[in-house]
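Example record used in the benchmark description.
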Amino acid sequence: MQSRKIGVLLGGLSSEREVSLRTGEAVLAALRARGHHAVPVYVDRDVDVALRQEQLDVAFIALHGRMGEDGCIQGLLELLGIPYTGSDVMASALAMHKGKAKELFRLHNLPTPAYYSLVASDTADLPGIHGDFGFPCVVKPIREGSSVGVTICHGEAEFAGAVEKALRFDDEILVERFIAGKEVSVAILDNRALGACEIAPHTGFYDYQNKYTKGATEYFVPPRLSPERYRGVLAQALRAHMALDCNGATRVDMMVSDSGNEFILEVNTVPGLTPTSLLPKIADAAGISFGELCELMLASATLGSRRGRGERRVLQRPYIGDERREERRDDHAVEAAHH
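Model output (structure tokens):
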């Protein structure tokens, strides 16, 4: 196992690039400390070339946001025949699209806050579209993570600005009913709920700054819930993970209302693994060290569309130097001439 070459994919092209770099560096250090042959693969638009050049045995995905968490990089790894950590193409895409995920939650009778979606052309009649949906509400891009572009609106005066802000990050946004209560995140590993963490920011809500600034948020592991409610939270989170057909490690974000009802917000298929991230906190409380967590995630690496079929991996040819793109085009031209 330890002789395999493991590529830790980090960086990427999304708004969460900085968080991905921190996650990837932490994973890289942990795997190396445990004797694994792990190398960094910094992801940009030449990632296909980098992956062929490295000739990896397995990929540890440490990418957050678009192109890394939404099925794109998973699809590329499928084509190259490189097993990877986390969920497959379809589950990743569904989980990243908050609207599609909520449709599946409803189909599986999982409680999720009421919502509707907007596109840029709808902004001409926001009061008419919003109608009696009411306030407060949460406005968020439909395919972003780390609370990027999210606003809690308490009245109509804030609404248009919140919609404009969210549309800077996506061409479709989600308007969701605000749920007052405790924010709880549940860690799932290999179809088992490890535990949960209650998130209590000192000011505002759990936005990007509160997520990644040490001391800005207080965490309670386990959450301050009754034993019965805690069991219910774990059960609902696992059902959400299964509804999207996720694999490996996920983190399910939920609200437990002041009246005691649970609501599924979203499922994160590539949870953060930074020093302030929730998955390592929950795993640690369950007796799993950070290094062990990374190894357990690595152990579940697979090819989603080829499980059990034994299909041959694509030959990974090295491409080296500044002209590597041109070299590959020349190769294709030669191959075409022969055919």
